[in-house]
Amino acid sequence: MEVQVCEWMRIQDDMKLVSGDYAVHLDLIAKVRGMNSAEKFFEDLPDNMRDHTTCTSLLHTYVQYKDLAKSEALMKKMSECGFLKGPLPYNHLLSLYISMGKLEKVPELLQELLKNTSPDVVTYNLWLSVCAAQNEMETAEKIVLAMKKKKIDPDWVTHSTLANVYVKSSLKDKAVVTLKEMEKAISEKDRVAYASLISLHRQLQNEDEVVRIWKKMKSIFKKLNDAEYNCMISSLLKLDKCEEAEKLYAEWESVSPTRDARISNLLLADYINDNLMEKAENFHEQAVEKGVPPSYTTWELFTWGYLKQKQVDKALDCFKKMVDSVKRWDPDKKMIRKLFEFMEEHGNTDGAEKLLVMLRHAGYITTEIYNSLLRTYAKAGKMPLIVAERMKQDNVQLDGKTHELIVLTSKMCVSDVPSSLS
């Protein structure tokens, strides 16, 4: 709808649009129609409207789509045209470098920024986040001092990032002081800041502060969202307050219409990690009855839990549900390896064959998977049927280990025909 309004404005003769209007339009096009459409819009602009404002908007689009090459090329062009008049373009590219882990590129870009313009609070916060990632406490403190000398007031993000540096450095007293400053800097519009505050106090094991801030949030906001419940429930669980977390989950269940499995999975993971599989099963059944649909993570948790309990049939059942719950499965190689290791250890050829079939249906078959199958047969003292033919059908190459295992198992007694082949 907003894009249509912008397009209508463009064709009105009595409306004289400026570059800022086109920049807003470009942002909306990128959001609704994608990066290529935004580029085409920019290219079709009148020459006098392709200025620092619309270029910055296009740069923001490239950053959002994590296109490093186009972002850097546009920054270079903007520099040549004298369009780098403020910190915003630099902040966009800094955020891209940080999100992509290209921290080695940050110092040079910061030097260029400091040479050409003045940093703002966002610049300093991005710089601080690099210090947090690299655990550079002294540099972080110098950055905050530089902000104050420039008479730039730190915001809640500044305090949150600095507190995170102190937490990582095990400087609890400094972290606590910084968190007090952070809380003072939070306004009602900074709602997300409270979750950060809870998380940081939880890392310091400040249970009383975690509870106090949660009560403060409930007094300020009429209704709390799923992300806030997620933060508080996970914090309680990490503080070993399972009973309190269960009560809060029941509260969430009674007020939230979303039935988001990410919330129920928090408790489910806690039960499974504590080897409370029966409790996990009962909780899962109750959640499903109340309309919380199981997610990929739900079945992933159960698969690991049953594998840990050596209940291989249940583990395979949940593994299948996990794979089937997504349109395109990104293979969990660690889980596959652990499942086959269990089959190999116990000579469970039936389980190994079932797992092979599941992986074939998921479109993930490798030489190592077949080698694991063969090792399972070797452990069981059995000869598998037509492995080379099956590998050829699956378009999988035999390697030296495969040939060794085929020779080894060919001397063993013939196994029963797997159900997958019958």
From TrEMBL:
Question: Which positions does the entry assign to PPR repeats?
Answer: 120-154
Concerning Gene3D superfamilies, the annotation shows: Tetratricopeptide repeat domain
Q: Which InterPro entries match?
A: PPR_rpt, TPR-like_helical_dom_sf
Record keywords:
Repeat
Q: Name one GO cellular component term.
A: mitochondrion
**Which GO molecular function entries does the Swiss-Prot or TrEMBL record give?**
mRNA binding
Q: Which domain of life is it from?
A: Eukaryota
Question: Which NCBIfam families does the annotation name?
Answer: PPR
What family does the Swiss-Prot or TrEMBL record give for this protein?
Belongs to the PPR family. P subfamily.
Q: What is this protein called?
A: Pentatricopeptide repeat-containing protein
What does the organism's lineage look like at the top?
Eukaryota, Viridiplantae, Streptophyta, Embryophyta, Tracheophyta
